[in-house]
Amino acid sequence: MENYNNNNNKMEIKQTLETGKFIESKIDMKLGEEIIKVQSPMCFSFHKHLVKQICFNCFSKSHEIKNPKYNRFKVDINKNYIIRCNACKLVYFCSDECYEKVMSKESFQDPTTIHLHTPLECLVLSIFQDQTKSSKINTLHDHTENRMIINYLSKIAYSTINKFKSLPIEMNQLIGGFHNYNYYNNNNNNNNNNNNNNNNNNNNNNNNNNNNNNNNNNNNNNNNNNNYNNQTSFSSLSLSNEFFKKDEIKNIKNKSFMLRKLFNNFFFRIDEGLIEELYAKSQRNSFGLWKNSEECFGLSMYGNQTIFNNNNNNNNNNNNNNNNNNNNNNNNNNNNIIENNKVNKDNDDEGDSEKISISFFNHSCFPNCVRVQENQSICIYNLIPIKKGEELSISYIDIRMSTIDRLNHLKECYCFDCKCKRCTLPPLSTLSLEIENIIQDYICKNKSIKCTGILYLPSNNKIQRICNFCKWKEPIINK
């Protein structure tokens, strides 16, 4: 088992050959702690029929605006936003302020802002819109995923700019497994990664002889992304058939070929294998953006974040202050969560902080944590008290489903057999019944809608639980 940078006082990354990377608690956690917050995604996209209703900058929804005539928001009679990019006509904004944050030259030069609609993205989307009737774009999910990959690659084209340099490093941490690639042709790696590099070299030798499909090779080459510009070359080692079905492999190859041709039109040449790996990472690491408990409005991928503990005792506050002093970009000593996209590249290789991706949270049908979407950001809260040494997990699916439906859904959509306590215990055992009682306690009880959400205790309200989807508040019972 491997450990990763054990400097964070709240949680740590561990890894086994059987489970891959997972997150484990290093302390006893009380109910309702904010474990991690990721401020903004590396890349994202909205469903094509909703792009006029979602602000590209802040993710606000036009249908939620009250009295638009009398406030700063700009919507038409159909509750669609009016302010947009006039070039591609595919990116909309809720206000002039949001437009300026994404489209202005000043925001492009701002080193802390990576949430931009780049000129290259605008050009590629204009052509991509004309090809949406292609048979290669079969579903709404395919279309949205294509646009999300376009969003990412369009930023990488400007990787000579400091604020975009961390994006390939963050993406490289995520597991894809479509191909095993040496992303940046590194010859000299950081001392912190020497052990990983030795393992990676052994895996590469095995790949050449035995077609080894180790999905963790993509996590070890995190340096020297300066060569990641107009032309990047890779050597394909082996195709992973463990995770992807034949029709999925064909679909990924078709979509990758199409995107490569789109970017070639603007002299940005990308190795097709890189795009294939991005699609593989998307399938294994993307998060749905939810309009409500029933409707998803887009897709997103979140990168690694530099995490600091959020406890209130004096010792941990001292640790936070020390960590804050080590990061020049953090100006708020009380801020315990620092986004990686606000830390310059010089801090990427430091050993004083732990880089944790939200994608490292594994699934459990009996989760002890829950994901909460707050516009651009994603937060993870614990649902129940957690003991030191316990794995932190979230649910990828509706936990109200029956055992058979859960197992079938996870196998079909995520390609694994769930081995959590809830799925493996005898149905009528004492522990199994206790688990079902706990789950019944934290599922949403909003009777006005059919909500699939989970009740959690937010950090700013320690007496009233809230649904992570519909935002229904549990009534407070006075004892």
Task: Please explain how this structure is put together.
The protein is of the alpha+beta class and 479 residues long. The chain has twelve helices and 18 strands. Helix 3 (119-130) packs antiparallel against helix 4. Strands 1-2-3 form a three-stranded antiparallel sheet, with no helix packed on it. It has a three-stranded antiparallel sheet with strand order 4-15-14, with no helix packed on it. Strands 5-9-8 form a three-stranded antiparallel sheet, covered by helices on one side. It is globular. The chain starts with a strand and ends in a 12-residue tail after the last strand.
Keywords:
12 helices; alpha+beta; 479 residues; 14% strand; 3-stranded antiparallel β-sheet
End-to-end gap: 48 Å
Q: For the residues shown, what is the average pLDDT?
A: 75
Helix content: 25-40%
Give the tally of β-strands.
18
Number of helices: 12
Largest sheet: 3 strands, antiparallel
Approximate shape: globular
Q: Give the radius of gyration.
A: 22 Å
State the secondary-structure class: alpha+beta
H and E string: EEEEEEEHHHHHHHHEEEHEEEEEEHHHEE
Percent range for β-strand residues: 5-15%
Low-confidence stretches: 1-7, 180-241, 306-353
Task: Write out the strand line-up for the largest beta sheet, numbering strands in chain order.
Answer: 1-2-3
